[in-house]
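Example record

The entry below shows one chain as it appears in the dataset: sequence first, then structure tokens.
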Amino acid sequence: MIKLAVVGCCGRMGKRITELASQHKDIKIVALIERPDCPEMPETLCGVKIAKDINAIKGADVLIDFTVAQAMMQNLQACLRHRVRMVIGTTGFTAEQDAAVIEASKQLGIVRSSNMSVGVNVLFGLLRKMTEALKGYTVSITETHHIHKKDAPSGTAKTMGEIVQNAGQMQNVPIESIREGEVIGYHKVTFKSPVDTIEISHNANTRDMFAEGAIVAAKFVAYKDNGLYNMQEVLGLN
């Protein structure tokens, strides 16, 4: 039985992760944490009392974090104190924050990904193969998200750009970021040559794909040694 903690449990992702995780027979939710100034915070969610102190994670096996970069850093320190593994879906890190996660992974098992979706991670693999095959094509990326998303470009778009740059030995893949309405997430990569145009895209229909992926990652890292893992490794796609 995996003892799971979720931080940011009243947010869009945190709430859905909690709801879906509560349906897994091999998971027990032992801690739910939300920031003290969260508006209209209920006392419980899925039968678990909501705490305002991150130290409530003590005794958990894994913490799932889909908060923001600054809050994640505080949560990371708590995980180090209490020896709790992490699944990090938060994006928008600075170079210093990124280095802190890498350093912490020497003491903890951590899964970190810009996108927890199984479908998106399959797309990452396809994107790598396409870039290797389509030499001489120009590449551009477009990503669209809801107006509440704080970072731009999205972490997923940045990962796509890095894949293209590494596989094609090119630099500065342009990324266009659009923020409109309540779009969950849409990413499109365009390969263009003088003779044709090829597009590959992914559209998120619901947030459940991210939530279920995070739960899969939690089950993976709960039994792993120290180290930094990504969703390609979790899914056996690397």
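Notes for this example: The first strand starts at residue 2 and ends at 7. The chain has two domains: 2-116+208-234, 118-203.
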